[in-house]
Amino acid sequence: MSGPVRGGSPFIGRRRELRQISDAWAGGERLVTLLGPGGAGKTRLALEVARGEDGARVCHLEEVETIDDLLAAVGDVLELGALVGATSVAIERIGR
Question: Domain residues of the chain, as ranges?
């Protein structure tokens, strides 16, 4: 199977992690980063949280190596258009 799991199967477990992420989001955090080894379920957990949180987005960063890569990835997910090379403007737009 390729690509992230789209929720076709029930999500079981990870209650503690779901609660921690939801609490951070409810507390005003604008960015939550999930770290862990490949296959640990980070993508599925992120998709599950995003499905239940208005405005939440999932941004995959495994290919990011530079600040421009990061800005391009985040800008794409937030539909902000091309942000590469415009670091200060990009950071300001992402922060809104």
Answer: 1-58, 61-96
